[in-house]
């Protein structure tokens, strides 16, 4: 299928989505949302795909929601249509998604990166929630996910001033998992995604579910949830195979069942 705002391809067992609105620094408009949902759905339906990488250009992962699209909207319109609520669906995607971020990841762009499971950043990456400078606030999780990722002090600092933080600061703060040279960014993300895609699918999906649950529940409930998932994996052939392969000093041949 041809997309207007994305480049979508398959590399081995990994789905690669590249935001492609260079004239607007990949600003996120309603077409991007519609197409991202379609691309994600296609990769989820494809059993061969074990992980997804979402990236942008060297200059911008995404410079935020499309300000030109939003500027004329009024309250009744955005309220009635529950404007931007559709982005939540992306957070519910089951297969792991890695954000590979170079350049600007601002506003909705930073939030989109945080909707992914982890962020690998180029040394050139710049993260920020500048909505306050436009007379609004973050709308798809910036005030919640950023605060959980970096803590209250830095989240307040970024969201109240609208300043940007560079990749080194983002890594120190715990927002990104790795920082690499710009020319290594896509390879690093693809290698991580390829590794994930090579592992047993049930355990990968459950690992993602278990970590995600940590953001939604108490420690006691989370521990119980993790333990039940752990126990249930003993019903899979891949648990037998993975442990036998270790003992027999060979590579496991997972069947994803
Ligand atoms: N929306 C629409 N167009 C944009 C956006 C944007 N967010 N960002 C950049 N562009 C456009 C510019 O208008 C410009 O277009 P043109 O050439 O036609 O004038 C082109 O991209 C290049 O941008 P600049 O000339 O400004 O490039 P600079 O290198 O000078 O500056 C910056 C780069 C610093 C990134 C600057 O473009 C900027 O500040 N952009 C806006 C950043 C911002 O405020 N983002 C937050 C938007 S609000 C938001 O995200 C709400 C979140 C909640 C909803 C999320 C739903 C997805």
UniProtKB/TrEMBL annotation:
Entry's transmembrane regions: none
Top class in the EC scheme: lyase
Coiled-coil stretches: none
SUPFAM superfamilies from the UniProt entry: ClpP/crotonase (SSF52096)
InterPro entries, per the entry: ClpP/crotonase-like_dom_sf, Enoyl-CoA_hyd/isom_CS, Enoyl-CoA_hydra/iso, Enoyl-CoA_hydra_C
Enzyme Commission number: 4.2.1.17
Record Pfam families: ECH_1
Keyword tags: Lyase
Single GO molecular function: enoyl-CoA hydratase activity
Similarity annotation: Belongs to the enoyl-CoA hydratase/isomerase family.
Protein name: Enoyl-CoA hydratase
Organism: Rhizobium viscosum (Arthrobacter viscosus)
């Amino acid at each position: 299928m041809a997309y207007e705002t994305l480049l979508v391809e398959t590399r081995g067992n990994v789905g690669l989505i590249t935001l492609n609105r260079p004239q607007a620094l990949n600003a996120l408009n309603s077409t991007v949302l519609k197409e991202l949902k379609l691309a994600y759905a296609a990769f989820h339906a494809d059993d061969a795909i074990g992980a997804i990488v979402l990236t942008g250009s060297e200059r911008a992962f995404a410079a935020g929601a499309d300000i030109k699209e939003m500027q004329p909207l009024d309250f009744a319109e955005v309220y009635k249509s529950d404007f931007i609520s559709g982005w939540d669906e992306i957070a519910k995607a089951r297969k792991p998604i890695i954000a590979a971020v170079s350049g600007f990841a601002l506003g909705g762009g930073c939030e989109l990166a945080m909707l992914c499971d982890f962020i690998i950043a180029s040394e050139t990456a710049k993260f920020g929630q500048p909505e306050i400078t436009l007379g609004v606030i973050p709308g798809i999780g910036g005030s919640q996910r950023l605060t959980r990722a970096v803590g209250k002090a830095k989240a307040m600092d970024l969201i109240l001033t609208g300043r940007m933080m560079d990749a080194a600061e983002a890594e120190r703060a715990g927002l990104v998992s790795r920082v690499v040279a710009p020319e290594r960014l896509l390879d690093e993300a693809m290698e991580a995604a390829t590794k994930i895609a090579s592992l047993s699918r049930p355990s990968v999906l459950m690992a993602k579910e278990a970590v995600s649950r940590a953001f939604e529940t108490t420690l006691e409930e989370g521990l119980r949830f993790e333990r039940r998932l752990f126990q249930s994996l003993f019903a899979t052939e891949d648990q037998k195979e993975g442990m036998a392969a270790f003992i027999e000093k060979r590579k496991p041949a997972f069947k994803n069942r």
